[in-house]
Amino acid sequence: MKKYIAELIGTMVLVLFGCGSAAIAGQVLGNLGIAMAFGLSIVAMAYVIGDISGCHINPAVSIGMWIDGRMEAKDLILYIIFQCIGAIIGIALLAVIINSAPSLGGYAATGLGQNGFGSASSVGLSVVGAIIVEIILTFVFVFTVLGVTKKAENSAVAGIVIGLTLAFVHIMGIPLTGTSVNPARSLAPALFLGGQALQQVWVFILAPIVGAVIAGLLYKGLSSEDA
């Protein structure tokens, strides 16, 4: 159970601080600040739980690892379950914090760092555009994770590389979709907000999965000895 609990804690931290930064201080931090909050959350957790669970804290990363043969199907399912639970706990804690500050107007008013397209996108990105963006961003992120974690000698820098990669995909993605690249991170706010967020969340579950599958298959093909 240790690795599953580690994934729960790691995902909770990622969602609480990443989505929390967007919801509470997004206007002050700007897109770069929010992106760094997500990235630094990964860096911190990578060096804490990396040796325990691998610090996936993202169903898309776990799917990529499974495709590359680095985890069994049972672990994949349990990782995803515990990642989703961790994300929900993170958003629940965030909602309590926001509701404790009357000037914020309640958690629903902050958006909880939700993802969206159309009227929920800063630039009015269409549903097709959102799908394309999330596939591309997730592909880049998962492809990087698979590459930097393949060799044990990269362990000292892997957390930094992964965190910075998450930050840079957020820099581009925040104005477009709010940047998901993580189904658990998107599902949790949508469950609390309902309405449009819940209606649109399928994009931010499906597209990251597709991006992860492409990344896993391509990396496996490129890194195989007989490729």
Describe this structure in words.
- The protein is mainly α and 227 residues long.
- The protein has a single domain, classed as Glycerol uptake facilitator protein.
- 76% of the residues lie in helices and 0% in strands.
- It contains 8 helices and no strands.
- The protein has helices at 2-53, 59-67, 73-99, 107-110, 127-148, 155-173, 183-193, 195-223.
- Helix 2 packs parallel to helix 8.
- The longest helix has 52 residues, at 2-53.
- The radius of gyration is 16 Å and the shape is globular.
Question: SSE layout and pairings?
Answer:
Blueprint: H1 2-53, H2 59-67, H3 73-99, H4 107-110, H5 127-148, H6 155-173, H7 183-193, H8 195-223
Helix pairs in contact: 1-3, 1-6, 2-3, 2-5, 2-8, 3-7, 5-6, 5-8, 7-8
